[in-house]
Amino acid sequence: MIRVARLFTRRPVVNRASIFHLYFRAMSRSLKISVLGRFQAQWDDGEAVDISSRKALALLTYLAVERGPRPREVLANLLWGGTGEDRARHNLRQALSKIRHCCDSLIVAAGDDLTLGSRCDSDVARFEELAGSDDPDELRECLDLYRGELLEGLNPREPEFVDWLMLARARLRDTACRVADRLGHALMEAGQVDGAINAFRELLAVDAAHEPAHSALMSLYVKAGRRSDALRQFQACGEALHRELGVEPSVRTREVYDGLCEEKQGVAAEDPRPASDSAVIQASSPPAIAVLPFENLSSSEQAYFADGMAEDLITALSCFHSLVVIARGSSYAFRNSDLTDQAIAAELGAQYLVRGSVQREGKRVRINVQLLDAEAGLQVWGHRYDREMEDVFVLQDEITSTLVSTLAGRVEAARLARARKAPPERLDAHDLLLRGKDHHHRFTPEDCKKCIDLFERAIEQDPDYAVAYAWLGCGLGQAMVFGLDDIPTLVDRCQSAVEKGLSLDENDSECHRVLAQVNLERGNLKRSLQHQERALFLNPNDDRIVNAMGEVLVFAGRPEEAEQWVRKSMRLNPYHPVRYRTHLVRALFHQGRFEESLEALDHIDKPRRDDLTYRIAALWRSGEPGAAEKTSLQLRDEFPEFDPVRFVEELPFRNEEDRQALLQPVESALAKTTHRA
Question: Structural domains in the chain?
Fold first, then answer.
């Protein structure tokens, strides 16, 4: 009894007020996680949260970037895809346990979905929110949040997560560049020279070869009386452009430099190019195009929008290696000029001119654009855009991305029309390339043979013509489809051609696009995505590159993202090839949207083997076995040697479930028709 009494008296006295205080403190605190740069997590009172597990960090980062609920299956496959479903689920539970040990409310479960807790704030969410602002202070805050690349220092090994991380890093890096550029120009207009200098410096820290930022810095240094810094900036610009892109500074940038050299006594104008870099005259001659200043038909306050449209077009068109784009400084010298189009073109050395006008009426804006063949004195193409002017920058980006691919395609079409009329002996390497592309697009075995011959002739004329090697790779890839030679031989020839092109120009987007396709054919999805992402970075407005990203992502098991890319490519090119629709069919099917997949198939007039196969699968899974069997008969009739197992096995799916989702219904439908026969 005494022993019991002693035990009772030793019990600690519970202070209910303290308990409630701790409880409400825990419930009121919010957690801040930083994934831009090296991972950090801390409570709003400064207390750090230590999460050392690499997989836990990857999981948190993915949920922070993607936002919203994500199924456990997706997360398990993302980080443990090669271990089997049961093991992957087990590993996910272990990672969640480690995270909850550090902070119970960090990740919240809702059924089979996981999401970040409501009291968890991430820097990337705030970064993307602020990126759409027009307020310089908010843009400054946004840029301050970009402390480095997403999850810097983490070197994941999981293929699925590596692919996702690569694309996410590129997207956020591009956003940071655009924010820095907008902030720099906003501060320039406000007369805040030092702030603008810092913004453009930050842009160059992310993208050292961003020539407009170099040019802006040179102008700002001049305004601040720092001419020596301006001269050094030009030297840095020349070195970065040569190192990263293999090109020289534009005419406009050089004009600023020459002016500085004239003003600065005792300083000789030096060429920023390395001594070994000499001008090379190539046999190929891509057409030259000049974008003239857009005419502002509204109030003077709208002049910035008209100039911004033209400047964005110049920048975007410069990404197409099939064009020579006249620098802004040269084309803008003809603002309000009385000269004829032919005379302006002659002065600039351009075959094609782009003219435009901008008129705002209330909340609506009308933009007229014309593409002119100055030599022939003809309008090649024209279009009018009527839009609601809600967000100026969004509108500008939308119209630019739509315009640029169209303009590049129209110039090529006009040049091809000339090349068709010229005698074969008078064709240069570029003309041969255009003729080859024309045959390539017709997609027949005979045209395939002709395009390969023309691409090889273009290379004979100009052995340093990088893009010709890329298109030779395209022709050889098409030869695989038609079975013109054994597949391994064609793949090797294709890879050899494209790698040669990259050795000549490592920044040729076409070479990277084709090499992405080669690696896709080899089943190397990781390498395919790397080249595809590089191609997209080099030329984000080329509809073929945008579409190819969708194709790769379907096979990578990311059909939702794939659909977005494919639809964007179809907007960029309303007269897109049939294969764009095929890729849309695949993206919809592998999301389980079978009815929509069938609707997309209805727009394909002459379905090929791939289209018929997906139609069978979509009909079967939509509960229409009779229609699926009917399509099976058509497939058997047109392709008597068709083997569904071999066909599906050759498709480079990363996930076996995607492969089986297609194979099983096709096998079932074909088995029914075989049994009847």
Answer: 36-141 (1.10.10.10), 163-263 (1.25.40.10), 288-418 (3.40.50.10610), 422-541 (1.25.40.10), 570-677 (1.25.40)
